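Subject: Sanity check before I submit

Could someone independently write out the structure tokens for this chain? I want to compare against mine line by line before I put it in a report. The sequence has 355 residues.
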Amino acid sequence: MLYLLFLLGFVSAVCSIKLGSNTNVTINNASPRVDTQGVIMDVHDGNTFYLNGLYYYYGASYGLCKEPSGGNGCSDAGPGNCGFQLNHNVSLYTSPDFATWTNHGHVFEMHRDHPVPGILFCPKVIGPNLQGDFVLWYNWLPGSGSFASSYYGVAVSPSPLGPFKVVTPNVTSLAFADVGDFSLFRDDDGSGYIIYTSHIQGYPTTHQMSVEKLNTAYTLSLGSSANSGFFGQSFVEAPAMFKRGSTYYAVFGQCCCYCQSGSAVTFYKAIQPLGPYTSGQAISGAIPAQQTNVAQYVGANGQADYIWQGDRWQSAPDGIKGHDLTYWGPMSFDGQGNILPLEFLKETSIVVDTK
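---
Independent answer below. Compare away.
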């Protein structure tokens, strides 16, 4: 009953108006997003891509645990506590217009599908690969003991709808060890890349960023022979990578463990996916959210447009972790391809071509 009363307290965080093949989509960043059944979308630190007329939105489901009070969601960090439980799953929602989202349930369940107990974060899906498969990467921590070690697991499905089956529970091909947040990028020629944080603990300089090419199956990386080397600031996480025209972008910011204040991100540009990258400016300092993804969508009359996606940790009106809000904001670029600073907008709109 409490849940139903809560749902009555807000309207859908996204609505749309159809005008020919273009749909005007209004995005509300002040309310939880809901699916086509009116249920809050528990989907966080994931990614979104477009395929054959549908947008696929994957993310971690954190469930109904109560967040710790205050602005720091990691104030009670530890196995079993809220945000660090063994029941994190990967959920999938699809939409034809970036406005109406259909829930496809869990496409991967950590307690069921991973070979050992673990705490899942940051799921990302890439595909199709040369075999036509879709590949899920996820960051995970051991389910008991300390958080001194952090790993990537990989699971595969012949369909973007899942379910995903583990093929590599611990990726060991990476150039750098002790890994954290990451994102995946598929180039126009089908090549895959991972941008990832590594050297998390016990190094003179920690939380450093690099880009690395994947094998053709997207299930392993090619290691140091195909790595950009560290670039940008240190003590960073939550990266995203995308391409606009002939320019590659890497975007990431300072570490922010479930922080309510958010984390400003800086963009870096290159003419090759492995760099070298040149530094731009901070673009999201005004937004109380931590970046999770930069999504490309089909804008007015078929042009490629981009939307910045972030998690508003510690923001759930009812204090439930899975109900934390997300932030979506359209991105703009100047004549030199630099990303312009983002504003915090409680409500904004985009035009999506749905023909």
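---
OP: Matches mine. For the report I'm noting this point. The helical segments are 2-7, 110-113.
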